[in-house]
Amino acid sequence: MKHSNSTESSGEGGSSDPTTKDSVEGSANAEKQSHITPHREIPLPNIVRCLLTRKLATEAPVEPYHLLSEYHWRKDILLQRLEWSWGMKYDSLDLGDESNKIYLCKDWLETFESGRWLLLPTFEILEKLWKRCTKHAREKLSLKTETLAQSSVDEVYDGAETFEYRLIPLDTDLPTLLRVAHPDGTAKSTSDNSGSPNISSKPIRHSHPFDTLPVLISHVKPHFVICDGGPKLFNKRSWPLAPLVSSICGVPFKEAVCTLEFTKYLYGVWANEEPSPEFAAPPRTVRPMPPLPSRSTLSRKRRRSSRECSGPCFYSKFDWAPTGCTHCRPPSHHPESSASKSEESGSDRSDEVSISCDSNDSDGGFLPKAYRENLCKYVGNWISYCVKQVRSQGGWTSQVGNDDQVGGYSKEPARKVRRISGDTSVRNAIVSLRRGNRHSTFVSID
């Protein structure tokens, strides 16, 4: 994982003193052009341009976009939880900062806002953030407390000011992307009598699945990117997307799955972390909110599908609420619906995460339920893998891992495996884990 630790303020737009623009560009360009490769483009200061096409604001309509959406700026409960999870002081989150803002051409901004693609941080950054999250959960468990202050999330970044991202398409019908070849946003050109540049080189064409698109370098911080990507991935399974992510990011399949899972569950844990009662004592400062763009309503109506939230919801990009909508809650016939009625949010699928905290469990009540449900999901995937291996190799051998726990089971004669549906075994195992069943079966495959 490589970060750029320069003092440049932006990849798509900047806010430094305009009087320093010429001197900074002159020295920075000469020094850094030698380090530019087709896959590592260095952002320049004071340049407002599209993150994807690299077009300047003077060449095409380029608009700013806040990753933690303007729709959430008045949601005090959400902001409290994020500030607490990120180790910030109450009322210190500046949502108008450049670290929460990217710049996109209008057509690509609409596709981004309507959930047709997302930005994905690197596996290394996501792994660090997830380890920070699980470490905090273990500390809460050891201290037997439900609220525990955290260190600043910026410590994970080791002082880096720019970060690497990849475009991950969630829609096969995305338009072709024409990206300017030169990293400074302009091609080699000459000027006519009017002083306007004449672009002499053609942009490079990238189309779905965009695996030829270079790494995107931006000043936006990964925790804001996760706040955008997490809700987009909630209603999508990670395994079908993993081969695409593996191809685009150039990582093994396992890392691709973890990258998607980390993005999904980090948002769930952050947005569900309850701060201490003393954290939000003073009232939040009412800051001016930018006007909500009309394109959002149009995109929402045009792209609405059966997978989207049916109303105010924990995963809604437009109307956040601390509870789940009817679409994201489990139906009444679900095996766990009776236990889930008291939860704030949940999922009706065994491989999706439920992000409520259950403080009634005697042992695991201090761990985020997202963490425990995530474990259940991975156990289910492991069982599915074992079933496939058993069927392909003709059978399996049972092996007892703890004779004292299972009693006389080890003395029973060997029995043939009853051929059952893999989905049924996975569901039963997950329900058993969720209900607190502590008996485990260890299986070795010949």
UniProtKB/TrEMBL annotation:
Name assigned to this protein: Uncharacterized protein
Region (Disordered): 1-36, 184-206, 277-309, 330-359
Top-level taxon: Eukaryota
Biased composition (Low complexity): 1-10
Feature: compositional bias, Polar residues: 187-201
Residue ranges, compositional bias (Basic and acidic residues): 333-352
